[in-house]
Amino acid sequence: MEKTLCIIKPDAVKNSFVEEINKSIKSNGLEIINSKQIQLSKKIAEDFYSEHAERPFFSELVEFMTSDFSVVQILQGEDAISTYRKLMGATNPEEAEEGTLRARFAESLSKNAVHGSDSADSAIREIDIMSKIFD
Ligand code: CMP
User: Ligand 1 centre from 110 Cα, in Å?
Assistant: First the structure.
C-alpha cells in the first residue's frame, strides 16, 4: 500500500470544503490514516516547499500557507500518489479538468485548495517533515 501527503490549504478550510474534499478522497479508494488541522509554522512551510525557494512566488506561497489553518493528512491506498494527483487536477485551477478538486474548490494558482506529493521520493520526504505534527 502506498502513502501520500495531502494538505487541504487555508482557502479550502476557510471556505468549509474539508468534508466535501475528504468525501471525494474516500470515494476514490483512499484511506485517511492521519489528519490534523493546524496553522503551519514559517519554519515547516519553508522546509516543506524548499524546492521552490528560488522561485519568485516562494514568499507569497509561505505567507499564504502560514496565514490560517490547513488540514494535513496522510492518505493510503493502491497507487495513492497518482490516484490523489489525478483527483486534485492541474496546479492552476484554470487548467484543471472538470470534476477534479482544484476545478471544484480552488480560487487561483496560489489559493489552489489542495497539495499532494508529486512522486514517491516527495511523499517520503513530505510525510517525514509533517510526521512531527501528528505526534
Ligand atoms: P502546490 O501543489 O502546493 O505546490 C507549490 C505551490 O506553489 C503550488 O501548489 C501553487 O499553489 C503555488 N504557486 C504559486 N505561484 C505559482 C506558480 N507561478 N507556479 C507554480 N506554482 C505556484
Answer: 6
